[in-house]
């Protein structure tokens, strides 16, 4: 079901994010395919760079504002901007408020933030989609990224995945626990970060899922990097890729 009155028009912009651009181009492809399936026309502004979160997490406020101002100029706030990343979406929605709290262009940042959506949140709460077509036969452990707390991202992902024929979402222990990445936290405190990641992998894979799913590529990168160093392998997919594969199985 589409409730198109929730969002004006179906012309959207894709903010690929740094990790998507550098490591996870398949997530960008899946996101475009998913958005086009629900009737959106997708634009990808070429001038886009970063949301500014690395500088923000490091306490470099001047660089944060410089990158954020560029982002606000690059995207048209009259159209929805869609991000396949819970952390980048959170940065724009909440980090920009802090970064520009005493700046003249706070209102510009807030206007852009109001037009920005994480992908699953947009599908469910922006377009009113209650279920997803197709089939995907898999047991899935879905990692809940810390930056999605206080948003509708995780709940929206669960709603979409649960509706797909053949999907079984696995409940696992300590599902609220952080994966340990935390952006620059993993650089400043690598030992703690890796220890947290190892524990998270144990919990996510305890029931031997077919897929470890995530709504954030940073978490995927962190967990898969630790697993590779341990010689452990598990299949991982961003939620957009699961939605895309379900669509293709319906054809």
UniProtKB/TrEMBL annotation:
Domain (Cysteine-rich) ranges: 15-92, 141-223
GO cellular component: cytosol
Listed Pfam families: CCG (PF02754)
GO molecular function terms listed in the Swiss-Prot or TrEMBL record: oxidoreductase activity
Name recorded for this polypeptide: (Fe-S)-binding protein
């Amino acid at each position: 079901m589409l409730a198109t009155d929730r969002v004006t028009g179906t012309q959207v912009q894709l903010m690929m994010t740094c990790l998507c651009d550098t490591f996870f181009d398949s997530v960008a492809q899946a996101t475009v395919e998913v958005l086009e399936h629900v009737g959106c026309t997708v634009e990808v502004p070429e001038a886009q760079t970063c949301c500014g979160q690395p500088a923000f997490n490091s306490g470099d406020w001047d660089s944060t504002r410089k990158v954020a101002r560029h982002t606000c100029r690059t995207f048209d706030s009259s159209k929805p901007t869609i991000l396949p990343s819970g952390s980048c979406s959170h940065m724009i929605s909440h980090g920009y408020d802090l970064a520009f709290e005493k700046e003249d262009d706070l209102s510009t940042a807030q206007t852009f933030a109001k037009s920005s959506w994480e992908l699953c949140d947009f599908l469910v709460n922006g377009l009113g989609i209650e279920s997803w077509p197709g089939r995907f036969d898999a047991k899935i452990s879905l990692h809940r990224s810390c930056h999605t707390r206080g948003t509708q991202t995780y709940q929206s992902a669960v709603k979409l995945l649960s509706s797909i024929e053949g999907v079984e979402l696995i409940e696992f222990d300590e599902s609220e626990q952080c994966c340990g990445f935390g952006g620059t936290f993993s650089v400043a405190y690598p030992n703690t970060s890796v220890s947290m990641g190892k524990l998270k992998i144990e919990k996510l894979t305890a029931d031997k899922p077919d897929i470890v799913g995530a709504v954030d590529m940073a978490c995927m990168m962190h967990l898969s990097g630790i697993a590779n160093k341990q010689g452990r392998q598990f299949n991982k997919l961003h939620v957009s890729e699961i939605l895309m594969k379900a669509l293709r199985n319906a054809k």
